[in-house]
Amino acid sequence: MILRQTDCASADVAARLGACLGVEPGPCLPALWHWLFFLDAVPADAVGADGHRRDGGLVEHDPDFPARMWAGGGVAFHRPIPLGAMLRRHSRVEDVRLREGRSGKLRFVTLRHDIFADDALLIEERQDLVYRAPTEARPEAVPAPEAPAGARLATVTPDAVLLFRFSALTFNAHRIHYDLPYATGVEHYPGLVVQGPLQAILLAGHLQAALGGAAIGRFDYRGVSPAYAGQPLQLEAWPDAERDRHWHLQTRAPSGALCMRADAIVGRAADQPESRA
């Protein structure tokens, strides 16, 4: 099944995220800001206790794996998205598989999204979702590799206000991001959890700022361990020593734990695929 949606890349919506991050959007959306659009407007009576929709939406609900997390993905940017552009998105489930993880059995779901303006393909995206049974176990912290000398570094401290505003902008009702008693008492996190997409946006923005606004052609990312509100988060980026235009990125918690790793290719995707509208 293909889910077809339309939306407008509203300048007002982009300005709201810009206000949260201290960024002034230009004439086109910064990398990954397309996540502000094509939101799933779930009715209140369809929302479960954790804040996610109970029926799973495009992804068929499996009662054995009720807890949902956005694990990572990859985005190819073929053309910029001008503010105010009318967009179309085609979405489908590409793969569903079961695996044994460190905290038990996991259900991995891969989604594919294609975003068009008129007949031009602007973005191809893979989203990796993971579903698990309720558990008190948390992923073991993985030490972040040391960034090489000369890496571009920056530090941000996502606070509860930023998490709340980002959840509002993306219509994400998962309570681990804004409801501290729920996050700690029900899902057994030590604090509010920084959204994976927010970390990815911060990393992409960090790279673009370090390179004077250079376009990103591809961005692949994976969440490794949670980051928490109120804790400094170090953003690190460095060029690949052997591949031109390739960069490595990561976020590091104060403990030294790796929270998210990413790889990026600077410059628009060279090959423009034909429209698949």
Number of helices: 4
CATH architecture: Roll
Query: What gross morphology would you assign?
Result: globular
| Strands, total number | 10
Strand order within the widest beta sheet: 1-3-4-5-2-7-10-9-8-6
* Mean pLDDT across residues: 90
Which H/E pattern describes the elements? EHEEEEEHHHEEEE
The CATH class label is Alpha Beta
Separation of the first and last Cα atoms: 15 Å
Topology:
Blueprint: E1 3-8, H1 11-21, E2 67-77, E3 86-101, E4 104-117, E5 120-132, E6 152-156, H2 160-169, H3 180-185, H4 196-210, E7 216-223, E8 233-239, E9 246-252, E10 258-266
Antiparallel strand pairs: 1-3, 2-5, 2-7, 3-4, 4-5, 6-8, 7-10, 8-9, 9-10
Describe what this molecule looks like in 3D:
The protein is α+β, with helices and mostly antiparallel strands and 277 residues long. The protein has one domain (3-266): Thiol Ester Dehydrase, Chain A, CATH 3.10.129. The protein contains four helices and ten strands. The protein has helices at residues 11-21, 160-169, 180-185, 196-210; strands at residues 3-8, 67-77, 86-101, 104-117, 120-132, 152-156, 216-223, 233-239, 246-252, 258-266. Strands 1-3-4-5-2-7-10-9-8-6 form a ten-stranded antiparallel sheet, covered by helices on one side. Strand 3 and strand 4 (104-117) form a beta hairpin. Helix 1 (11-21) runs antiparallel to helix 2 (160-169). The longest helix is centred in the last third of the chain and has 15 residues, at 196-210. Residues 270-277 have low confidence and may be disordered.
